[in-house]
Design brief:
This protein is globular. By secondary structure, the chain is an all-beta fold. The protein has a seven-stranded parallel beta sheet, with no helix packed on it. A four-stranded parallel beta sheet has the order 2-4-6-8, with no helix packed on it. Strands 10-12-14 form a three-stranded parallel beta sheet, with no helix packed on it.
Length: 203
């Protein structure tokens, strides 16, 4: 039985529309489904522990994905450029969201980050232009560089008092974000962290 899907295994399989990964698979390699632009649905089995570097990047047709409870990390660029992705369920097993994880997921409107996540990587949700609301849990301590930059539809975000640092340009060019409250726990705010039209309120 298959236990792993290797590096670039299905890269550039542009006509691939659906795939079922068996429960015997424990790892999906870097770039495994990179640029499978017709892939619309994929079921990740519970045996998978991590989603690796750019594993599903540029899967333009991918609309929804469920990440099972055993996955602990979403790798850098894992879903970069998945422009049709409207829905994703992140389980409580996830502890980190990598750099560029959901970069340029233009159709993503809402996402719930579970309270197991401690860090949101650089550019993690940057260019998610349809994202309107996001809830950051009390477990998160740092928001990375450009994490939500150019999320032009983002109207509301709550920063919990667990956060100590907000990176450079974290909410830059979020033109719909009119107000944001910064808790006392935040000791470091990077350059150009917010748009000029965002009212920043310190607790």
């Amino acid at each position: 039985s298959i236990i792993s899907i290797g590096y670039k295994a299905f890269k550039d399989c542009e006509s691939l529309e659906e795939i079922v990964i068996p429960n015997s698979v424990t790892s999906i390699g870097d770039y495994a489904f990179y640029n499978c632009e017709s892939l619309r649905e994929i079921i990740i089995p519970k045996s998978i522990k991590s989603i690796r570097y750019k594993a599903f990047a540029f899967c333009y047709g991918l609309e929804a994905i469920i990440i099972p409870n055993n996955v602990t990390s979403i790798g850098n660029g894992a879903f970069w450029g998945c422009e049709s992705l409207k829905e994703i369920v992140i389980p409580n097993s996830i502890t980190s969201i990598g750099n560029f994880a959901f970069y340029n997921c233009k159709s993503l409107k809402e996402i719930v980050i579970p309270n197991s996540v401690t860090s949101i990587g650089n550019y993690a949700f940057s260019e998610c232009e349809s994202l309107k609301e996001i809830i950051i849990p009390n477990s998160v301590t740092s928001i990375g560089y450009c994490a939500f930059a150019n999320c032009e539809s983002l109207k509301e975000i709550v920063i919990p008092n667990s956060v100590t640092s907000i990176g450079d340009s974290a909410f830059y060019c979020c033109e719909s974000l009119k107000e944001i409250v910064i808790p006392k726990s935040v000791t470091s705010i990077g350059d150009y962290a917010f748009s000029e039209n965002t009212k920043v309120i310190r607790e």
